[in-house]
Each structure stands twice: as C-alpha cells, then as structure tokens.
C-alpha cells in the first residue's frame, strides 16, 4: 500500500513566496535597490505577496542592522524555494551559504511583468518535498544538539542555513502554516 502525500502549497503560492523572498533578500543585500524594488512591487500590484514583517522591512528606509542581517538570510530561503519550484535542479547544500548572484538570472528583471514568472513555477512532487523536509529536520535537530552540547556541528551543516531550509520546507509541506512570519522550525 502506498501513501499519497498531498501538497500543502499550490504552484502559484510557491511562485509568489519565491518572488517575495527574492525581493526582500535583494533589498537586504543591495539596499540601494530599495526604492526601485518598492516602486516595482506597487506597479505590479504585488503587495499581497509579502508577510507583515516583510512589508514593514520594505517600507522602512532605514531598517536596523539586525533587521537587515535577518533579511540577508532570505537568500537561503530563496535558494530552497527555487529548488522546490523547479527553477534549479539541485537542492542547495546545507553546508554552505547560497549567493544571490547564483539566483538572479532565474527571476524577472526589475520593471518586467512578474505574473508569467509566478505562473511558470511548477513544484516538485509532494513526496520529494516531504522527504527533503524530513532530512533537513533531522539534520537541523542534530546541529542544534551539537551546538547545545558545545560540539562541532556534524555532517558539515551550517546551522543557520539548515534552519532557513527547515523553515521553508515546513511552510511547503504543512498547510497549517498560513502566516509566513509564524512558521516554526521545532525539531
């Protein structure tokens, strides 16, 4: 008997979240783009894609250094969503940080229409997403335990990277996470 794993997110939800995280990560990494990105979001009527925390970040012309640092981690979020949405073949490695430059060519240029991009996203099979979530959750649990016990993190995982991957994969596979800002990474 095989178990059918149902998707928690539609392709368009993944596409919208992917675009939102990419734009937040871009603003965090390149603050000089803030005004242009915010204007583009308004022009394309994309405000509904962003969580409350993301909208507050984008609207604040002078976010704290801590907030900017938190949103630079959206590069990791974008990388795993790009894999989940079929933009890249390989799931990002949990041992190293991703680069915005590696991802930028997969997204529309500023000023271009975005709805075709969102509509083009095709999620990986639900079973693949659930399997990836289980692997990342296990890796995250090991990394947390190692850190708590003062040991070097085994398996070569970067605990910050694996934490962001865990967050994304939980959102992708658990329908109860409606609000992006509330996604848990309990292990």
The major sheet is characterized as: none
Any low-confidence stretches, pLDDT <50, length ≥5?
A: none
Overall mean pLDDT stands at: 90
Estimated radius of gyration: 16 Å
Q: What percent strand?
A: under 5%
N→C terminal distance: 28 Å
Query: What structural class do the secondary elements suggest?
Result: mainly alpha
- H/I helix tally: 9
What form results from the Cα inertia axes? globular
Number of strands: 0
- What is the domain tally? 1
Order of helices and strands: HHHHHHHHH
What is the helical fraction, as a range of percent? 55-70%
Can you walk me through this structure?
By secondary structure, the chain is an all-alpha fold. The chain has one domain (11-182). Helix content is 56%, strand content 0%. It contains nine helices and no strands. The chain has helices spanning 11-29, 34-43, 52-59, 65-72, 74-84, 100-103, 115-120, 126-148, 159-173. The chain is globular and about 50 Å long. The two termini are 28 Å apart.
Helices, strands, pairings?
Layout: H1 11-29, H2 34-43, H3 52-59, H4 65-72, H5 74-84, H6 100-103, H7 115-120, H8 126-148, H9 159-173
What structural keywords apply?
187 residues, mainly alpha, 56% helix
Q: Nutshell version of this structure?
A:
By secondary structure, the protein is mostly helical. The chain has helices spanning 11-29, 34-43, 52-59, 65-72, 74-84, 100-103, 115-120, 126-148, 159-173. The protein has one domain (11-182).
């Amino acid at each position: 008997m095989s178990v059918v794993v149902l998707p928690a997110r539609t392709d368009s939800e993944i596409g919208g979240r992917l675009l939102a995280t990419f734009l937040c990560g871009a603003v965090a990494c390149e603050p000089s783009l803030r005004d242009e990105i915010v204007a583009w979001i308004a022009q394309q009527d994309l405000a509904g894609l962003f969580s409350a925390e993301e909208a507050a970040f984008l609207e604040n012309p002078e976010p704290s250094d801590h907030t900017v640092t938190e949103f630079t981690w959206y590069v990791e979020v974008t990388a795993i969503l790009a894999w989940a949405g079929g933009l890249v073949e390989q799931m990002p490695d949990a041992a190293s940080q991703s680069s915005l430059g590696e991802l930028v060519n997969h997204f529309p240029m500023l000023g271009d229409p975005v709805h075709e991009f969102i509509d083009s996203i095709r999620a990986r099979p639900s079973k693949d997403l659930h399997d990836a979530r289980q692997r990342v959750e296990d890796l995250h649990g090991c990394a947390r335990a190692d850190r708590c016990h003062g040991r070097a993190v085994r398996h070569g995982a970067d605990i910050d990277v694996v934490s962001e991957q865990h967050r994304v994969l939980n959102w992708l596979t658990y329908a109860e996470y409606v609000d992006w800002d509330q996604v848990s990474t309990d292990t």
